[in-house]
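Subject: design request, 185 residues
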């Protein structure tokens, strides 16, 4: 009988070790803004072969898509992707956008739909102020016009198809300001 109990204890311990190992592995492989920033910093595209560049771009896209909406905002707010994105050729930028825009816009629309009217109002006011500051500014020369059009097109498509009626009404001033800003470019 003791042998049976000993085997059961060993068996349960083994199961817990395996489960603990899987949980540890899942936590260490889950993307975070810090891990993505470190990856970008440690994987420069300068002088790399096209195949290596493609693997790096795919890895960054996969990690970015694995982040939550708030984590993506953290990466964008910290401007951690700017240098990486500017190091890409226009074709690589398009490929990167194709891989990351749908997920990003879907997460953004879900976040907007979950906001309270007061949160949306504050968001709209802050964003409008930022957009008015940028009105009439020229776009940086290293950003391809086709890629800017792609971002705007994908964003508007997602907005009109995924945003609730309340979000559309609350965000109407932003759409108007965006159109003003784009007329100057």
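Subject: RE: design request

Done. Sequence follows.
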């Amino acid at each position: 009988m003791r042998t049976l109990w000993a085997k059961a204890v060993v068996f349960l311990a083994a199961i817990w070790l395996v489960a603990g190992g899987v949980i540890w592995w899942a936590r260490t492989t889950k993307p975070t803004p810090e891990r993505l920033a470190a990856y970008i910093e440690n994987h420069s595209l300068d002088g790399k072969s096209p195949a290596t560049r493609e693997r790096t771009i795919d890895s960054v896209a996969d990690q970015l898509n694995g982040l939550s909406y708030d984590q993506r905002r953290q990466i964008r707010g910290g401007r951690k992707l700017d240098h990486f994105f500017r190091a890409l050729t226009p074709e690589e930028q398009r490929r990167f956008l194709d891989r990351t825009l749908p997920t990003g816009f879907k997460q953004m629309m879900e976040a907007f739909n979950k906001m309270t009217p007061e949160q949306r109002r504050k968001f709209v006011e802050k964003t409008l102020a930022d957009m008015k500051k940028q009105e009439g500014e020229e776009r940086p020369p290293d950003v391809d016009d086709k890629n800017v059009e792609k971002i705007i097109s994908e964003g508007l498509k997602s907005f009109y198809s995924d945003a609730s009626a309340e979000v559309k009404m609350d965000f109407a001033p932003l759409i108007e300001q965006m159109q003003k800003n784009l007329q100057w470019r």
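Residues 1-30 form one domain.
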